[in-house]
């Protein structure tokens, strides 16, 4: 069944349809939000908030034309709300610091190249970083990205092109630094 059909079932009171959507999208949505916020606890909170809004809208009878872009739009807006609230950042940093004491750090399961790419992407502006994550990590089409971010397809294309150009510059600069450091 399509995601929109599950939303239709949810609007009819069939809560198990929502469980299927959560199962289907929790991991990719968490990955997207985590890449934007760089904080596991906060990313999980945003994902839960996103699914709560999806559930509430479904219970009210709302069925989006395209579920996936709509879901990413909710999550992106929740991230933007977080960025607008400076106090919440301090709360999460404090929580994270408190959690981290006495714990063994996670072993990074990504290759060095992947970490290098993510670090390079993080140097981009939020606008460029967001479209690149949605396109290349979440595999959304341009039209879906436009819906998710509430921008035109031409703006999506422009941001992807400019983001990739800036990313190329960043990667080349990093390569030069690495060559100088090893030589």
Question: Any overview of this molecule?
Answer:
Residues 115-167 form the RNA polymerase sigma factor 70 region 4 type domain. Belongs to the sigma-70 factor family. ECF subfamily. This is RNA polymerase subunit sigma. Residues 22-85 form the RNA polymerase sigma-70 region domain. α1 (3-11) packs across α2 and α3 packs across α4 (67-84). With 183 residues, the protein is mainly α. The protein folds into two domains: 1-106, RNA polymerase sigma factor, region 2, helix turn helix motif (Rna Polymerase Sigma Factor, Chain: A), CATH 1.10.1740.10; 108-183, Arc Repressor Mutant, subunit A (Orthogonal Bundle), CATH 1.10.10.10. The chain has helices at residues 3-11, 16-37, 40-59, 67-84, 86-100, 112-121, 126-137, 142-149, 153-182. Residues 87-112 have low confidence and may be disordered.
